[in-house]
Design a protein that fits this description.
The chain has 26 helices and 7 strands. Strands 4-6-5 form a 3-stranded mixed sheet, with helices on both faces. By secondary structure, it is mostly helical. About 65% of the residues lie in helices and about 5% in strands. Bound molecules: zinc ion (ZN). Zinc ion binds next to helix 16.
Length: about 600
């Protein structure tokens, strides 16, 4: 492996345990088990007869549960982190599996608590939720109960769980196995090559236009060969979803997702409509891009063609400097916290054989500091990855004043700090960059990222809505799904991007449609929220900083809507979402000016 600047940058996990053979691992697991059994013996009767529950006994129970979950989290994180850093090590594989098994046993012992809490009738539950003694847990207790009207009896839930393995989960596995084993034959570099799905998709970023075009044609021709099965899988999963909605009394296919996200449907509708009415911004950019590429118009396979010039390489040490400076310009608190990650070896950045790909930040619990894994290869994209993960890291550190049950945020706000961190570093770099060609590449890259998370995910969600509506009438055909897909995309691309004929298969390989339906709008929410917050920051300046810090410190102690209100965010107001689009408009304008000068 070629040398690069992150060689030797490994994390130090000694704050968790000393090694995979540390006897404290087994000791912690045993202790958790004893505590969980005692908890069950002590609490089962009163949970089954909630009228006997007092606020004090419930408070004690929650505190004890937090202690057990924290301890379990420490072991689980240690095993997970060891394994991620060296997946081929049999000792680590073993530990990871053993801990997972023990955790499942433990969680099963404790499961009765949540189930019985859901069963308690409203008068009793509301009396406890409203009791001042339980104030810090009121959001947690209340939010658990949001699934109450949609939960079936214990034996019914059990049967569904078991039958899902050969039902919808099996269709999901069929989809995964099928799409990951697909091969696409393509002439590349003068040789016939068999490429997999992600290899073909990555060719859409190639500078060579004919290659991009052939890659796209090959992709859709390949998918169309499996069209009947891919349609059957999706059709079945939609029908399964509709059946379950009926049994669980969900009025609309998106409602369950909204509950998970702790967001109400009206706010999502407002956001999606605002997004749709700003599709024109995307088309403005595509017309600019056609000019940059010297083309009369853009075809779909030109969407991710590189423009401008990639900058000089970035060493890991330079990344550290740039990120710390960009964070400090926002607030010295950010620099202070982020410096700890570098100084105390909480980051594993080196590229190694056997190490997990990609990047993540693990923030297991408020009693532990987060750890970051990435694979740093000396380019700008990786600087942004470190900035992203450190954003999560700041969130994980600042919210450590919360207790375990108030620590995590739902999906809708989980990416706020990370994307905001990226914005800070992006702006800092763009400002300090003098070569206009590099600036063009940076801005275009940023815009394309933003469009992929805002406009494209909105298109995806509109397609899902249309497919679900159509399935209520009759079984879906490939022709119908293709037509709905082209219609949803046409509203976005309009006259700015030409869609090739094969694109009607574009829906067929998207894993979210299969594994986590209606997930995609969360990306729109997260990205627009950050753009709007960033704009507010630039309008308000320093007075914005303490409010933003308070948001991160609050962790998951309340619903996203309530936590965002002090920052002037009203997710039901179209004008709020419009702020995000004004920020995008500013970026497009910056690019336009640069091209004029270049
Ligand atoms: Zn993230």
């Amino acid at each position: 492996m070629a040398n690069n600047s992150a060689d030797g940058i490994r994390w130090d996990l000694a704050d968790l345990f000393s090694s995979h053979e540390d006897p404290r691992i087994e000791g912690t697991l045993n202790d958790c088990h004893t505590r969980a059994q005692a908890f069950s013996a002590r609490l089962r009767f009163s949970m089954e007869h909630p009228e006997t529950l007092t606020a004090d006994s419930l408070l004690d129970a929650l505190k004890e549960l937090e202690i057990i979950y924290e301890a379990l989290g420490r072991v689980g994180s240690y095993a997970g982190l060891l394994y991620a850093a060296d997946t081929a090590n049999p000792d680590y594989q073993n530990l990871e599996q053993r801990v997972e098994q023990r955790s499942t046993e433990l969680r099963n012992l404790l499961l009765f608590f949540e189930i019985q809490w859901l069963k308690a009738d409203d008068t009793i539950a509301n009396r406890l939720i409203g009791d001042p003694a339980l104030k810090t847990y009121s959001h947690y207790l209340e939010s658990l109960r949001r699934f109450r009207p949609h939960t079936l009896t214990e034996p019914e839930e059990k049967i569904l769980n078991e039958k899902d393995n050969t039902g919808r989960n099996a269709f999901g596995r069929l989809f995964s196995e099928m799409t990951s084993s697909l091969t696409f034959a393509l002439d590349k570099d003068g040789k016939q090559q068999d490429l997999n799905l992600s290899q073909v998709l990555s060719l859409l970023h190639e500078p060579n236009r004919t290659l991009r075009q052939r890659a796209m044609e090959t992709l859709y021709a390949g998918l169309s060969q499996h069209g009947q099965v891919l349609t059957f899988i999706y059709d079945t999963l939609i029908q399964d979803h509709l059946t379950m909605d009926n049994l669980r009394h969900y009025p609309d296919p998106m409602v369950q997702r909204h509950l998970f996200n702790e967001i109400d449907g009206a706010a999502v509708d407002t956001m999606m409509q605002a997004t749709e009415s700003n599709y024109g911004l995307g088309r403005d950019y595509f017309k600019l891009k056609a000019r940059l590429l010297g083309l009369p118009g853009l075809a779909l396979y030109d969407q991710y063609a590189p423009v401008g010039q990639e900058g000089r390489p970035f060493s890991y040490q330079q990344a550290e400097q740039v990120i710390l400076q960009a964070f400090e310009a926002f607030t010295p608190t950010f620099r202070e916290i982020a410096s700890e990650f570098f100084a105390k070896h909480w980051i594993d950045a080196e590229v190694r054989k056997g190490k997990r790909g990609g990047a993540f930040c693990a923030s297991p619990s408020p009693r532990l500091h987060p750890y970051i894994l990435c694979n740093y290869t000396d380019n700008l994209r990786d600087v942004m990855t470190v900035a992203h993960e450190l954003g999560h890291g700041l969130h994980g550190c600042l919210s450590r004043k919360q207790s375990y049950f108030n620590y995590d945020t739902p999906l809708t706000t989980a990416e706020t700090a990370s994307v905001f961190g990226e914005m800070l570093v992006f702006d800092y770099l763009a400002e300090h960059q003098t070569d206009p060609q590099v600036q063009i590449a940076m801005l275009a890259g940023k815009l394309e990222d933003v469009f992929a998370t805002v406009f494209r995910q909105n298109v995806l969600t509109r397609f899902e809505q249309a497919a679900f509506a159509a399935r209520k009438e009759r079984r879906l055909t490939p022709e119908q799904l293709g037509a709905l897909w082209v219609e949803a995309n046409g509203k976005y691309y309009g006259d700015a991007v030409e869609m090739p004929e094969g694109y009607r298969w574009g829906w067929s390989y998207i894993p979210h449609f299969i594994h986590s339906r209606f997930y995609c709008y969360s990306y729109v929410f997260g990205q627009l929220l950050v753009l709007a917050l960033y704009r507010t920051y630039r309008e308000e300046g320093k007075s914005f900083v303490p409010k933003y810090l308070a948001l991160l410190e609050a962790g998951g102690s309340d619903s996203p809507e309530a936590l965002l209100r002090p920052l002037g965010v009203d997710i039901h107001d179209p004008n709020f979402w419009q702020k995000g689009f004004e920020e995008i408009r500013g970026l497009v304008k910056r690019l336009d000016d640069l091209i004029g000068k270049a």
